[in-house]
């Protein structure tokens, strides 16, 4: 459910969330490959119960940031009623019970106060407080986070993970996908023939080679980068281009985690 930036008349861009086709085929995060089980332990599947019938379906990714909190994208919050959501941690195959999963209901949703529904305005981040804590069963881990204000150099290779669309036909994978994405620094990503003015300093651009990208269903999930001796979640999947997700000079855009740490910690410290 990667949202795609809303502009006037939505010219060339998808302007609303659309449910994606749940046909199951073996495939890839676009241009990626199956991840190894038990690798990206902070990855979360955010799931929604649309009809209050206790049937949950994957809508977005997320990251475990402490035992009681998950970080995701604000645009993944379809309703502020926490009873409509659950998170699944320790997940690998969405369509099989692997024995590693923990299914946890959401107790509270906090969306960044600067989020106004316009992806070009940024602030696409939300924190979910869980009804019960994540416990260490060997298949989960709390994500390491970057330092405040930390940025990554142009060309630095990170990894996107998720269960998002694997092609333009709307096919989704059964198991967690991963793909390498090279960071595109802000001075490049904000050029008119890249993302222009909708690429903000509070965002991370990565990809744009026309081959590898995130896509719908990856939203809210992590951009994991190996920095300062550890894998750290530097980005939250926010938006990409309308139509085919892997377009040249239209990299996947992430909320820059290092720009929001003070707000995140204030939310996590609430009673």
UniProtKB/TrEMBL annotation:
<keyword id="KW-0378">Hydrolase</keyword>
<dbReference type="InterPro" id="IPR043504">
    <property type="entry name" value="Peptidase_S1_PA_chymotrypsin"/>
</dbReference>
<dbReference type="InterPro" id="IPR018114">
    <property type="entry name" value="TRYPSIN_HIS"/>
</dbReference>
<dbReference type="GO" id="GO:0005615">
    <property type="term" value="C:extracellular space"/>
</dbReference>
<dbReference type="InterPro" id="IPR001314">
    <property type="entry name" value="Peptidase_S1A"/>
</dbReference>
<dbReference type="GO" id="GO:0004252">
    <property type="term" value="F:serine-type endopeptidase activity"/>
</dbReference>
<dbReference type="GO" id="GO:0006508">
    <property type="term" value="P:proteolysis"/>
</dbReference>
<dbReference type="Pfam" id="PF00089">
    <property type="entry name" value="Trypsin"/>
</dbReference>
<dbReference type="InterPro" id="IPR033116">
    <property type="entry name" value="TRYPSIN_SER"/>
</dbReference>
<dbReference type="InterPro" id="IPR009003">
    <property type="entry name" value="Peptidase_S1_PA"/>
</dbReference>
<keyword id="KW-0645">Protease</keyword>
<keyword id="KW-0732">Signal</keyword>
<keyword id="KW-0720">Serine protease</keyword>
<dbReference type="InterPro" id="IPR001254">
    <property type="entry name" value="Trypsin_dom"/>
</dbReference>
<keyword id="KW-1015">Disulfide bond</keyword>
<feature type="signal peptide">
    <location>
        <begin position="1"/>
        <end position="16"/>
    </location>
</feature>
<protein>
    <recommendedName>
        <fullName>Peptidase S1 domain-containing protein</fullName>
    </recommendedName>
</protein>
<dbReference type="InterPro" id="IPR050850">
    <property type="entry name" value="Peptidase_S1_Elastase_sf"/>
</dbReference>
<feature type="domain" description="Peptidase S1">
    <location>
        <begin position="29"/>
        <end position="269"/>
    </location>
</feature>
